[in-house]
Design a protein that fits this description.
alpha/beta; Rossmann fold; 3 domains; two-stranded antiparallel ribbon
Length: 463
């Protein structure tokens, strides 16, 4: 942990306290001076009210800490941080109300509780955004950036290096890579692994990311010890087996420890909750978007021959099912798909596919062609979030490793759609699907749904 990162995480605590206090102050003046609903009885004096607020702030800060909002090692950022703020402030409000009830304190207004919730949330989020923006601004000048080196080189590492070069605000500075030989002319080759182990690393780089899964275990242990000795962060890009190993629980049978491998957390109550969200979410979306569905249907029908919907057999968790999409290609285009697979490879996506109609291009660019899949979600064939449903012709070419992506219900959106979409090759696609299956959580789904909205608006990788 760099000192700058520790500093910014520590700063969050007083910033949150100040912003919560501001939220209490604003709520008071809104209720006391500019409210249309008259207050019944006498209003607390400002000094009395602020004393009450100052008493609550330490309790709220403790709740934030329990929510993981001050976690230094795995700091919550983006939507995860926002969700944590909502949960933390809502819990703080509940405890405040419970305290008022049991203390039998005569609070001057119940409506102000809502004002406190809204104003504290707005101020606290604004405070955190300000801290993050300052941190990102300083990254541009190298303050607090992590100097990163890679061990090994492949397409994944190349993509990560490009991201680090392009997005300085992420806080990473790519130094170069160690490997047994030079493989990338555009990136700095730093030498062999043995040469790295002779360096005083803490003066050269802050973080080592190992991507070469072929390195012997004793060499890996040597690298880890080297990083520990030099106070360098060590990270590992897992292979397929290592990703599976992250979902292990320890049981005892007759006093003997036994490791139980669970392929996905999406079982038991997780499966029930996911289905309930799918059912409610698809029902609400179908009702709200029904005018949009009607307009698109009319545009497709009036612009080209053929049915409005494209109905095709897809492979799901429990066998094949009929997947619904708005037709974006000319009639009979699916008959050419087998030949296109032979020519362009499995799971291909063409930027200028000659089979796509003019309206179809727009529908694909905006992802509106997938709206009818909401009916698949409602019927239980698909989920809102999950791996893309593959065609029967595609699955015929799957390897045993690639077939693992069929382990859960396919989804309208997923990790693939928010991580590059059609710009990714199939192996990268499968790795993302397997990561989702192994690491599913309710918050993961919610984050992916929000990220999907942004990706759809940006139109990135859609064609």
């Amino acid at each position: 942990m760099k000192r700058s990162e520790l500093l910014f995480n520590v700063i969050l605590l007083p910033v949150d306290a100040i912003m919560i206090l501001l939220g209490f102050v604003v709520a008071y003046f809104l209720r006391a001076n500019w409210d249309f609903v008259p207050v019944k009885g006498s209003i607390w004096s400002f000094d009395h009210y602020i004393s009450f607020g100052l008493t609550m702030i330490p309790i709220w800060i403790i709740i934030f800490a329990l929510e993981g909002l001050y976690n230094i090692k795995n700091a919550r950022k983006g939507f995860g941080e926002f969700a944590g703020m909502i949960m933390g402030i809502s819990t703080g409000i509940m405890i405040t109300v419970i305290w008022l009830f049991f203390s039998q304190t005569e609070f001057f207004s119940r409506l102000i509780v809502i004002y406190i919730w809204v104003s504290c949330l707005l101020f606290a989020v604004a405070g955190r955004i300000a801290v993050r923006l300052i941190q990102r601004f300083l990254y541009q000048f190298g303050f607090g950036t992590r100097r990163v080196v890679f061990i090994g080189w492949d397409n994944q590492i190349s993509d990560m290096a490009k991201m680090m070069r392009k997005n300085k605000f992420k806080g990473y500075k790519f130094i170069g890579y160690f490997n047994e030989r030079s493989l990338a002319n555009d990136y700095k080759y730093l030498g062999t692994i043995s040469e790295m182990l002779k360096l005083n690393g803490k003066e050269t780089f802050d973080e080592v990311i190992l991507s070469d899964s072929n390195i012997a275990e004793d060499k890996k242990e040597e690298i880890v010890n080297y990083c520990n000795d030099n106070k360098i962060i060590f990270k590992l890009i897992p292979n397929a087996y290592e990703m599976k190993a992250s979902n292990i629980s320890v049981l005892t049978m007759g006093g003997i420890p036994v490791l139980e491998y669970s392929r996905t957390p999406l079982s038991g109550w997780g499966k029930v909750i996911k289905r309930l969200i799918d059912l409610v979410g698809s029902s609400v979306a179908i009702i709200i978007l029904s005018p949009v569905l009607l307009v698109i249907s009319l545009l497709i029908k009036s612009s080209s021959k053929g049915p409005v919907l494209f109905c095709q057999s897809r492979v799901g968790r429990n066998g094949n099912f009929i997947c619904y999409k708005f037709r974006s290609m000319k009639e009979g285009a699916d008959k050419e798909h087998e030949e296109y697979i032979k020519k362009y490879g499995n799971m291909f996506k063409l930027k200028d596919d000659p089979r796509v109609t003019s309206i179809g291009k727009f529908l694909r660019k905006t992802s509106l062609d997938e709206l009818p899949q909401l009916f698949n979600v409602f019927l239980g064939n698909m989920s809102l979030v999950g791996p893309r449903p593959p065609m029967v012709e595609e699955v015929k070419y799957y390897t045993k490793w690639q077939r693992q992506r069929l382990g859960i219900k396919p989804g309208i959106t997923g990790l693939w759609q928010v991580s590059g979409r059609s710009d990714l090759n199939f192996d990268e696609w499968v790795k993302l699907d397997l990561y989702y299956i192994e690491n599913w959580s309710l918050w993961f789904d919610i984050k992916l749904l929000f990220k999907t909205l942004w990706v759809v608006i940006a139109g990135k990788g859609a064609y």
